[in-house]
Amino acid sequence: MTQTQLDESVEYLKKKGFESPEIGIVLGTGLGQLVDGIENPIEAHYNHIPHFPLATVEFHSGKLIYGTIAGKKVAVMQGRFHLYEGYDFVDITYPIRVMHQLGIQKLFVSNAAGAINLDFKKGEIMLIEDHINLQGGSPLAFKNVSAFGDRFVDMSEPYDLDMRKKIEGIAQKEGISIRKGVYASVVGPQLETKAEYRMLKMVGADAVGMSTVPEVIVANHLRLPIVAVSVLTDECDPDNLQPVNVQEIIAIAGKAEPKMIQLFTELIKQL
């Protein structure tokens, strides 16, 4: 990644009409419906944006969409990139750097995750308070990282406290039940074994997924405030583990998604 590549990506998007978005939003697996609420949308397919990776997962659309939600300009990633697709950490997080250069001042992130905490149930939403990086690397571990920001990034509070409090207030007002917890990010794409679920519980994870942490690390590198939520799509009980049905996971994400959209939309209004 070079500054020239970022400039070329940004220039392409500006020519398409992506003008000073205020909020960047990353939509996770099965969570693409938020884009239906974007007013005056402008779409840029990833395969047309210079230097962008291509989404290879069938339920990730692969578009960057610009427009307005609740009167605020947004840039929305409909489809994200994962380590398990064969990308490296710099590829995965490249769109975050592009959105930052376009002008975003806040980042919203969503994902589908499995509930490790057995008090949490599928279909619920978890507000991420902290995370555990089990992906075996960092999006900041490259030679010229200092050209883009501090090499050593503080991660004592990676998720913005003010936006978290606002989300909790919105959930209470709207009657949406939300959980709070720690998200563990693993490589995938295989699901976890019983022993791995037990280990994740022991290290303090409340939910597990295969994304989000690289984007959050880079957002902290760019000093972008972040709020992130997991839609819990399955319950990871090692003593009663059923084979995972990916289509069922997508269906549960789809059912829970309106609550996530409501939380994000109301938060946008308050910013």
Automatic annotation (TrEMBL):
Pathway: Purine metabolism; purine nucleoside salvage. It is an enzyme of class 2 (transferase). GO terms for molecular function: purine-nucleoside phosphorylase activity. GO terms for cellular component: cytoplasm. Its EC number is 2.4.2.1. It holds the Pfam family PNP_UDP_1. InterPro entries: Nucleoside_phosphorylase_d (IPR000845), Nucleoside_phosphorylase_sf (IPR035994), Pur_Nuc_Pase_Ino/Guo-sp (IPR011270), Purine_phosphorylase (IPR011268). Gene3D superfamilies: Nucleoside phosphorylase domain. Residues 23-269 form the Nucleoside phosphorylase domain. GO terms for biological process: nucleoside metabolic process. Keywords: Glycosyltransferase, Transferase. The purine nucleoside phosphorylases catalyze the phosphorolytic breakdown of the N-glycosidic bond in the beta-(deoxy)ribonucleoside molecules, with the formation of the corresponding free purine bases and pentose-1-phosphate. Belongs to the PNP/MTAP phosphorylase family. This is Purine nucleoside phosphorylase.
